[in-house]
């Protein structure tokens, strides 16, 4: 899976990394895991239901 990052996300990520450098590697690992397997257990993701199904 390929993640698409908005310009806003990139700016927010850079700000977070600047303010909290210790979190940068954690966020990068989480994003990598999300790209590899979006339903990996530690991510706590789930399939959408109801009106959101298929979006």
What would your notes on this structure say?
- The longest helix has 13 residues, at 7-19.
- By secondary structure, this protein is mainly α.
- It has helices at 7-19, 24-36.
- It is built from two helices and no strands.
- It starts with 6 loop residues before the first helix and ends in a 19-residue tail after the last helix.
Strand content: under 5%
Number of DSSP-assigned strands: 0
Q: Name the helicity range.
A: 40-55%
Class derived from helix and strand content: mainly alpha
Rg estimate, integer Å: 14 Å
Distance between the termini: 16 Å
What characterizes the major β-sheet? none
Give average pLDDT, whole number.
Answer: 89
SS field, number of helical segments: 2
Please state the overall shape, judged from the principal axes of the Cα atoms: globular
Q: Which series of helices and strands comes N to C?
A: HH
Q: Uncertain segments of ≥5 residues (pLDDT<50)?
A: none
Topology:
Elements: H1 7-19, H2 24-36
How would you summarize what this structure contains?
The protein is mainly alpha-helical and 55 residues long. It is built from two helices and no strands.
List its traits.
55 residues, mainly alpha, 2 helices
